[in-house]
Amino acid sequence: MREIIATDKAPQAIGTYSQAVKVDNTIYLSGQIALIPDTMELKEGEISERIHQVFKNLSAVCEAAGGTLQDIVKLNIFLTDLSHFATVNEIMAQYFEQPYPARAAVGVKELPKGTDVEMDGVMILSAY
Q: Is the Cβ–Cβ distance between 80 and 16 less than 8 Å?
């Protein structure tokens, strides 16, 4: 049985997808970019500011599903410029504690709305 997870504390879907889908105690988190939920505009400034916004958006969806970022077991990071990988690592350390989730960082040509970072993931809740 699937349960759709939605919150107004994260950007609304800009396509044919849900913010997250829960199946049993597993939550599949859709990709989040640096959209500001209230305005649906991309966060401006340095990439570090957009990375923080992406983590805030992911966190809001995790909370709507009954968990936190610490419940993420697999995180996928998509960057249009892999030279920002060190910045992602620095910022990620502010949001996660050990044990860290499994992770992939992938360089891509482009991302939705012309942004430079997107993340999705899978989280597991310890209780149903």
A: no
